[in-house]
Amino acid sequence: MSGASGLYVVIGLPLIVALLFFALAWFDRRFGIETGPGFFQRNGLVIGLYLVLSVGFWAFFIIVLPQLAMVDMSFRPKLPPAQMGGPRDLYTLENYRYFLFGSTTSTENWNWLHIKAFFLTIFVSIAITILNFAICYPLAFHMAQSSTTARLRVLLLLLIIPYWVNEILRAFAFRVLLSTSGIVNQALLGSGLVAEPVDFLGADVGLYMGLSYAYLLMMIFPLFNAIESLDKNQIEAARDLGAPWWHIHAYVVMPHAKPGIASGCTLVFMLCAGALAAPLVLGGPRTLWFTPIVYDRFYQAFNWPQGAAYAFILLVTCVMFVLLMLKAFKLSLGEITR
Amino acid sequence: MAAAVELEGVNVTFGDFVAVRDANLVIEPGEFFSFLGPSGCGKTTLLRTISGFIEPTHGTVRIGGQDMKGIGPNKRPTALIFQNLALFPMMTVAENIGYGLRVRGVPRHERDEKVKNLLIQVALSEHGHKRVSELSGGQKQRVAIARALAVEPSVLLLDEPLSALDLKLRQHMRAELRAIQKRVGITFIYITHDQGEALTMSDRIAVMNAGVIEQVGDGRAVYAEPRTPFVASFVGENNSIRGRVTEVSDGMATMDTSLGILRGRNPIGIAPGDEALLFVRPEAMQLHANGSTVGFEGEALDVSYEGSVTHVTLRVRTGQKMMATVHAGAGVALPVAGENLHVGFQPGDGLLLHRPASA
Amino acid sequence: MKAGLAHRLIFAVYIAIFFIYLLGPLAVMGVSAFNTPQYPQVWPFEAFTLEWFGLLFADADMMYGLRTSLWIGVLVVAISVPIGLAGAIIMTQITARLRSTYYLIVVSPVLTPGIIIGISTVVFWRQFTTVTGTRFLYDGIFLTVLGQASYISAYCMLIILARLQRFDRAQEEAALDLGATYPQVFRHILLPFLKPALFSSAILAFLASFENYNTTTFSILADKTLTTVLAGRVRQGSTPAISALAVIIVAATLVGALAYEIWKRRSDKTAKERSRIARAAEEAELAGEAQPLPA
């Protein structure tokens, strides 16, 4: 199938969906039990138009269409601009083949480098998510249940400050700390614990710690919000009945905080798997991380369709993770966005 | 002069649910008219239909003789006082009151003049600059009223405005509202579930039940001459006795009941042989029967002394409980609990009404 | 947790370690901004200097990137807040059946990795502007603003929605009943009510746009923002000028937080004063001092 028809499909499909949407809304009004003024009657013409146009532009031109265009491109071959839309522009799986086998045509050898990077990224992201959860949960609990409001504001402030320093600087701070002449190594050498400076950065430990550090806030806030809504009396009641503290957490607090836990985990995973700045700053030439590889497809190999394919793989992974989270915690999407 | 509000065959349905069924009503200009009924009877729906927030499913609403079909709430000559008042928190008292004038494009100095007069009228002249959050309950009420009066509506609609206030204040505000209405002369349409309120304030009352207007009349008509069992028992306390009519003459009827032969007035003309309910008000029950009354035996279950009145709960032979009210006075003997009484009432104090199938 | 002393001690230690872990790296970097060696160094502290700050301001690329970032931030606020507002209003008016699909679509950018938003924005608009002949739109700033707006509008929408759901519809009806037209109700009643949410979402939008890297690095094309210049500098090598930048940002945040705290205390005081007046009036009323109406 020709790639030239791609743009029409990309635009056409959502348009059809939108028309269905309006048809459904009209149908509901006509035959359903909705009463009261209609949409344009209720908002007035000017405001009604503003509402429909802004959200329409947002949903289509900013959210949906770009995604569809990217997916569409991932199925097209790499061609110089002149030949795009031409006869050689046919839909193909060659970009995905490259990801798996390292070549657009043969399937003899596996593309170990990329595949390994992909799975390592996922595995480490999951590990960092769990680590962050373990680190942040006690503090979130304390903030939500035990702190006074004055102290709470101070704690919140202390938490927010590092966040506004953008992630490049956060990663950089870690580089300064963990470099071979950095303060941590100096302390280790000085106290005689090691004979030579430890290469944290080369061993990727620096990267992992940096990633965990960068997204602590994204775990704390959802947890805090979720735990805060728990009625203190429930915990008191459980304690009165003689439950040990770990029991209270496992069976009273955490089930209630499920949306917050799912939300925090999803955000941290997504940010780690999609991290670009930290691997750039804290990683070395031998560092394996998926997102910089995606970046390189664009700006080193100059192969946009391939980059699009890799990006799509990343997107699918994140979506699957979100669905898994929702399934495991038995939640709906609305409950996990703050 | 055209009626202030006219409802003709108004029906309001939401899906399967009928909120207002076949309302026909004429409200005269300058009246203080109340809708009285329990929660869910449709009075709020009717109010919102008159205001324009709801279009009737069938029927016509006319205000000042003009058909209001398709005319939105912002174009109708009505003003609504909401149950929670809905004052604008981001504006001062003066700005709240002047809002209706502002959206009509009334120039500033004229607006300020009118607002000043209204503030004087509701005795809040020192408070114009305050925010809504600085006011007491009663003060907020008056701001709401001033705000509504500012747009000079021909009909003022009030949705249970006093229900959030405490008792003493409520009584004070009742008198105030009545005074304001008399002075300004606008038609007031008032809804409430408190029948004491309806009776003291209104020129006429419409009693509603489950979407139907059961009776329209002044306080006396609705209290002393109810036309349906619902009205008889909702407005004030009432005792009802079931029976069958045996004889009819001169506007009176004789009934055969499980408590014996009783008599009462028969204004609606129930025919002999029909089932009926005989209603007797507690204050009409006499606890020591004499020759001129019709009566039956009863045992006093509970005697509640309340100072000016004493409420006596009786149990009669059939097990039914009845209420009697005795007014304090010199030489009035109060019964004691457990005492057997021969109670009775003047036949003129009994009222026969049709017995609905479910009673 | 049991209030035993041992537990409390462990907990205090935990909090201390947590905040050292959180703020330590920044403190370290902050110190290195004032230290003389060319490589960011905290220990030994050789001499106090401000030269790195000077170097930072002399860096033309960095200053250009800063201006671009500020400009993009303003544009993003100008787009995201109105879109977020529209999104929130529609959310409250849409029929229940369509609501979850609508929600899924508009909130999806929040759960999408930043680079994917950047990539998809560039890919789509390159094609679109070529086909429709509007090539002039294919510009770094335009694309960055749109890309960032996709998820930042969602943030704004969620913030505004939270406030909107607490809106008393009766006020809207009261205004209509008094004769206001729908645009007047929107302007006089709804927007003032939403003001706090509009304000905080605007601030959030600006900050989120300013610090964004993943999306921007793709959508900015040939242009530069502060974050992309920064990334370049960091990759080339580290000088304490970068630490100096961090110090400035932290200082700016602290100033902002302080200003907010002061403002909050003041508005709390006003609110307290107002309810005190209301309570006094209530008591006067109950005591029967209610003023009678003039005859």
Task: Supply the key terms.
heterotrimer; A: 338 residues; mainly alpha; MetI-like fold; 17 helices; B: 359 residues; alpha+beta; Rossmann fold; OB fold (Dihydrolipoamide Acetyltransferase, E2P); 2 domains; six-stranded mixed beta sheet; five-stranded antiparallel beta sheet; 8 helices
- Report Rg of chain B: 25 Å
Strand content of chain B: 35-45%
- State the CATH architecture of the largest domain in chain B: 3-Layer(aba) Sandwich
In percent terms, what proportion of residues of chain C is strand? Answer: under 5%
The total count of helices of chain B amounts to: 8
Largest sheet of chain C: none
List segments of chain B where confidence is low: pLDDT < 50 over at least 5 consecutive residues. Answer: none
The CATH class name of the largest domain in chain C reads Mainly Alpha
CATH fold naming of the largest domain in chain B:
Rossmann fold
Query: CATH architecture of the largest domain in chain C, please?
Result: Orthogonal Bundle
CATH class of the largest domain in chain B: Alpha Beta
**Structure classification of chain B:** alpha+beta
Overall body shape of chain B: elongated
Structural class of chain C comes to: mainly alpha
Could you say what the CATH topology of the largest domain in chain C is called? MetI-like fold
What does this structure look like?
The complex is a heterotrimer of chains A (338), B (359) and C (295). Chain A is flat. Chain A is an all-alpha fold and 338 residues long. Chain A has helices spanning 6-31, 39-43, 45-74, 94-101, 112-146, 149-164, 167-178, 183-190, 205-214, 216-228, 232-240, 245-256, 258-273, 277-282, 290-299, 304-329, 333-336. Chain A has 2 domains: 3-92, no CATH class; 112-336, MetI-like (MetI-like fold, Orthogonal Bundle). Chain A has 17 helices and no strands. In chain A, 41% of the residues are buried. In chain A, helix 4 (94-101) packs across helix 16 (304-329). Chain B folds into 2 domains: 5-230, Rossmann fold, CATH 3.40.50; 237-354, OB fold (Dihydrolipoamide Acetyltransferase, E2P) (Beta Barrel), CATH 2.40.50. Helices cover 24% and strands 36% of the residues of chain B. In chain B, the strands form 4 sheets. Chain B has a 6-stranded mixed sheet with strand order 6-7-8-3-9-10, sandwiched between helices. In chain B, helix 2 runs parallel beside helix 4 and helix 3 (108-121) crosses helix 4. The two termini of chain B are 43 Å apart. With 295 residues, chain C is mainly α. The chains are: A mainly alpha (338), B alpha+beta (359), C mainly alpha (295). Chains in contact: A-B, A-C, B-C. At the A-C interface, helix 1, helix 2, helix 3, helix 5 and helix 6 of A face helix 1, helix 3, helix 4, helix 5 and helix 6 of C.
